[in-house]
Amino acid sequence: MKTPLEILLVEDNEGDVEMTERAFRDKKPACNISVANDGIEALDFLFKRGKFPDAPAPQLILLDLNMPRMDGKKFLEVVKEDIKLKSIPVIMLTSSQSPTDIRECYERHANYYVVKPFDGKEFADAVRQVVSFWSNLGQLP
Fold it and tell me: Do 93 and 62 form a contact (C-beta atoms < 8 A)?
């Protein structure tokens, strides 16, 4: 059996957190999801600071764009400039369809950009497809 993929979900909307967790309740693909509610909390998780001294090292980050305290773009800048973190794939998972947001995320080295479907089933399918690609087809560092 394949080892579960460690995912860090950076999302401030509790409804989207619940939908993402629900998408993997059937364990396909197998993954462990940790949640941070904004970019600052996610950095604490990655650097094992504060309430996260035993945080697992994520193999994949699912990142919302619009969050309080530190948004997805600023988080991308910090992560992709850090020698220890920059190889972790970061998938933007956001409601923004703005061409400017899309371009700016890729300029900050996002690995993929997914617009969140509003329908719950479509949302779950999209998240599972992205994670399935990275866990089954893609080669992670």
Answer: yes
**12, 105, 129 from 138: Cα distances, Å:** 27, 20, 12
d(CA 65, CA 38): 10
What's the CATH code of the domain at 53? 3.40.50.2300
* Domain ranges, residue 39: 5-137
Mean pLDDT in residue range 113-131 = 87
Q: Tens digit of pLDDT for each residue in 72-120?
A: 999 999 999 999 999 999 999 999 999 999 999 999 999 999 998 888 8
Cα separation, 81 vs 95, whole angstroms: 25
How many structural domains compose the chain?
A: 1
d(CA 78, CA 64): 15
**Count of CB atoms within 10 A of residue 76's CB?**
24
Cβ burial, residue 4 (10 Å; 0-12/13-18/19+)? middle
pLDDT for position 93: 93
Q: Retrieve residue 134's tokens.
A: 């990275």
**Alpha carbons 72 and 40: distance in angstroms, whole number:** 10
